[in-house]
Write a structure and sequence with these properties.
Low-confidence stretches: 1-56, 402-407
Radius of gyration: 21 Å
Strand order of the largest sheet: 8-7-9-10-11-15-16
Order of helices and strands: HEEHEHEHEEHEHEHEHEHEHHHEEEEE
Number of strands: 16
Largest sheet: 7 strands, mixed
Distance between the termini: 20 Å
Structural class: alpha/beta
Length: about 400
């Protein structure tokens, strides 16, 4: 995996900026020829609130208006995420070559009603597209309002239930992680799966996606159980799966670093030979606590190639003197995408045909495309757990061609 260096000189910065937007511009240009607040990505270790002045009401001075609805004044991690995403949007405008857009920034405070009011204001001010909100209930309110005005929404919720025609999600959907890791595992000779899944809303989504992905590939799920986030409470479900795991060649544990090490320790205590089973996970495994768990060494998980994010984070730190939250790239990519579409697509720039082009777009976190139902598909890499961090064992696809059809 290549590591991108932090930009320090103006000439190098310009090169980095071109790279950051080139994929979006190139793909958008090609179209001419072819024409919940429970998000696991809201970091629990988010950076402190910035001491900078309150943000302005607009970003950029172009002729095409777009709204950006974020929980800027919300308490806790939500407000931190909102500010970081606003910063990333500002960064995207600054790094794009003369974008003809103006971003109307609206603060929803983390509430659905304020998001609806912000969307109403933005629509009355001529917004042609809405970016955000972050949370599922707010997306529902904004989507209803925007659909009545035939204005598309690119939102950041991880809840696929709020996606619909014209309301597109640019988030990291857990379904994509599951599909990619199961596809890779089966292609690598794993056909019998066991699963230990957290008993929470994320686990509910992942369980459904896991069952579907396994069935689609004529593989077998020999055991599945849900566990609470409590070491004592997880003992029984772990023991149940441990007994059946002798018939499995892979064990799927889609949870984060605060739980997976405990699950694995309980498995070892139940007599499971962790060297025989191939451990599988989702993007939540991109966590130092996972890398520091010796029994997980060699485990596989699906996630975006981290090189793009590291490059972005270095530029963000240079500009704002603090680390971004992980969701900041979503705002950057959304703004860069609409700037590219304005530059290349003329009056059809935000039509459903353009936004759902099957070739997709390339952003900070790699390849993505919107489906007609509002969900998205991402080109993810498969990583192997190592003490030094995640190591790529199957690169993210470069296109959504036949080679990527299984992702």
């Amino acid at each position: 995996m290549s590591v991108l260096l932090q930009v320090q000189a103006s000439s190098a910065a310009m090169t980095t900026r071109r790279r950051a937007t080139a994929g979006l511009l190139a793909t958008a240009g090609a179209l001419l020829a072819g024409c919940s607040q429970n998000s696991p990505y809201l970091s629990s270790t988010a950076p402190p609130q910035s001491t900078q002045a309150p943000p302005g009401a607009t970003i950029g001075a172009g002729q095409v208006n777009a709204a950006l609805i974020l929980p800027l004044s919300a308490a806790g991690n939500a407000g931190v995420a909102g500010q970081a995403m606003r910063n990333a949007a500002e960064m995207a405008v600054g790094e794009f070559n003369s974008p003809n857009i103006q971003i109307l920034v609206k603060d929803d405070g983390g509430t659905a009603e304020a998001a609806r009011l912000g969307a109403q204001q933005a629509l009355d001010e001529g917004a042609e597209i809405i970016l955000g909100p972050l949370f599922a209930q707010s997306v529902s309110f904004v989507g209803q309002l925007a659909q009545a005005r035939n204005v598309p929404v690119i939102a950041f919720s991880t809840d696929a239930n709020v996606a619909s025609r014209g309301v597109y999600l640019l988030s990291f959907l857990p379904e994509s992680d599951v599909e990619r890791i199961v596809q890779y595992a089966v292609s690598s000779g794993k056909h019998s799966f066991a699963a230990l899944i957290p008993d929470n809303p994320y686990g509910t989504v992942v369980e459904a996606a896991f069952k579907q992905a396994v069935a689609r590939r004529n593989a077998q799920a020999v055991a599945l159980d849900r566990y609470p986030h409590d070491k004592a409470g997880m003992a029984v479900p772990v023991r149940n799966v441990a007994q059946a795991a002798v018939r499995a060649d892979a064990l799927f544990i889609p949870d984060g670093g605060d739980a997976v090490p405990d699950v694995v320790q309980t498995l070892v205590g139940a007599g499971v030979n962790t060297k025989r089973l191939q451990f599988l996970g989702t993007g939540l495994w991109d966590d130092p606590r996972i890398y520091g768990t010796a029994a997980l060494d060699g485990g596989w998980y699906a996630a975006p190639d981290g090189a793009g994010y590291r490059n972005f984070a270095a530029r963000y730190r240079a500009r704002y003197k603090q680390d971004p939250v992980r969701t900041a790239t979503l705002a950057y990519d959304a703004v860069a995408l609409i700037a590219a579409l304005v530059k290349t697509q003329g009056p059809a720039r935000f039509s459903s045909e353009v936004l759902t082009n099957p070739s997709g777009f390339s952003g900070i976190d790699g390849l993505f495309r919107f489906r007609a139902d509002g969900t998205n598909e991402r080109g993810l890499a498969v990583m192997r757990v190592a003490a030094s961090g995640g190591q790529i064992i199957s690169p993210a696809p470069r296109s959504f061609g036949p080679a990527a059809s299984g992702i």
